[in-house]
Specification:
By secondary structure, the chain is an alpha+beta fold. Helix content is 53%, strand content 20%. Strands 2-3-8-5-7-6 form a 6-stranded mixed beta barrel, surrounded by 4 helices.
Length: 415
């Protein structure tokens, strides 16, 4: 151990000051600084892990309805969707595909009217692309010509229907008659209810057989094809590669572009939370400045003696920089360890707290996610630890510079 590290470690462990009780007070201030840094690091890691968990949970629920990649006609339809799907399947990372017809309509039951997005599908291929949770019914019930329909759970609740009931679909394409344009109506039988876990889709999405949708909305072919790839995180790169494989007047977008606004909002919120919670670490760093300033004042006689024995100002500077850095590192390590343990056990501890105190943090009737998910990521942890160490190091500079400028004669004058 070098001389600077040896003295810094002695000062960090010291509990008796040169002026009686001052040493004990300094020890408390140092402990408070370390605890403050640990608290800030712990809070940052836990909050970022929870936000990552919410993002992952919502993303997974979205992907139960939204495909990894969509290819659709720029003119609104793709007449030869079989060839389009065959071209996309040539990419080695595309593992499944399904055509779809997409349109908007009104659904009515008695006096209740709701707008809905109607998606015409082929049950077999659709099952390989989507992972819907069906509360009742099956995708296979969507047989051509039977005009069955699967409703999102919230949409079925709003319409007040259950499997076996009938709803009327009003298509925007009307029939032209001498009396004017008459809306096209068709009754559908509710064959089941699905639950994606995402309110936006459960409240506005309805599935019908693809041929029924083509007939009702007078569309030839398909709106496009939906693709599933082997790794959803690589979907943007695969979508770019597909632009060089797929021919024709089509547009290609991945799941991130489909929900770009939502993911952008989440990222902004995450950055703001990081900045706000970093202020906790910054406050602890100010405490570290105060602690080192008081340490320098308490140790001025020691500094003077070290200077008279030949220690250079750079040596004195290094001693107090190392002491402050050690305090910051101890607090950062303790906070990081506590944060990782908390983030990994939130799914156990939060339910235990709710049962013990009879409370519920996320009510089922308000939030569509009623658990507190956690997804700790190494990149976030490294960023938090790096910021905490840098703030701790910066906090040591002024007190250490002040100690290095201290003149031995002035320090010993009052001793």
């Amino acid at each position: 151990m070098s001389f600077e590290w040896f003295v810094a470690a002695r000062y960090l462990r010291s509990r008796k000051g040169a002026h009686g009780t001052a040493g004990g007070f300094l020890s408390f201030i140092s402990f408070a600084s370390i605890a403050g840094i640990a608290l800030g690091v712990w809070a940052l890691i836990v909050v970022l892990s929870v936000m990552n968990g919410f993002q992952k949970e919502v993303r997974d629920r979205m992907l139960a309805v939204v495909a990894h990649i969509e290819i659709f006609g720029a003119a609104g339809s793709v007449p030869a969707w079989e060839g389009l799907l065959a071209q996309a399947r040539r990419h080695p990372r595309v593992i499944a595909g399904a055509p779809y017809v997409l349109a908007q309509a009104m659904l009515t039951n008695a006096e209740v009217v709701r707008g809905a997005v109607i998606r015409g599908i082929l049950p077999g291929p659709e099952a390989s692309v989507a992972s819907l949770t069906l509360r009742s019914g099956r995708l296979e019930a969507l047989r051509p010509g039977e005009f069955n329909i699967l409703l999102g759970a919230e949409l079925a609740r709003a319409l007040g229907v259950a499997p076996g009931d009938r709803v009327t679909l009003i298509a925007p394409q009307g029939n032209v008659t001498p009396a004017g344009v008459i809306p096209r109506l068709k009754q559908f039988t509710v064959a089941g209810v699905f639950d994606s876990g995402h309110f936006e889709y459960d409240s506005a999405l309805a599935l019908v057989a693809m041929e029924d949708a083509q007939r009702l909305f007078r569309q030839e072919g398909a709106t496009g094809v939906r693709l599933k790839v082997d790794d959803l995180h690589d979907a943007p790169a695969i979508a770019r590669e597909l632009t060089r494989i797929v021919e024709g007047d089509v547009l290609i977008r991945d799941w991130g572009r489909i929900n770009r606004n939502w993911f952008a909002a989440v990222q902004v919120e995450k950055r703001m939370m990081f900045i706000i919670l970093t202020l906790i670490v910054a406050v602890a760093a100010f405490n570290l400045v105060a602690s080192l300033v008081m340490t320098v004042t308490d140790k001025r006689a020691d500094i003077a003696i070290l200077r008279t024995l030949g220690a250079s100002p750079a040596t004195i500077l290094a001693i107090f920089v190392i002491q402050g850095a050690l305090s910051g590192a101890m607090g950062t390590a303790a906070g990081a360890l506590a944060g990782v343990v908390t983030a990994l056990n939130l799914d156990v501890w939060v339910p235990a707290i709710e049962r013990a105190f009879g409370i519920q943090f996320l009510a089922k009737d308000i939030y569509f996610i009623n658990t507190l998910p956690s997804d700790p990521r190494l990149a976030d942890m490294l960023a938090v630890v790096g910021v905490a160490l840098i703030l701790s190091l910066v906090a040591t500079l002024y007190p250490s510079w002040r100690a290095a400028r201290m003149r031995p004669v002035e320090a010993l004058r009052h001793e």
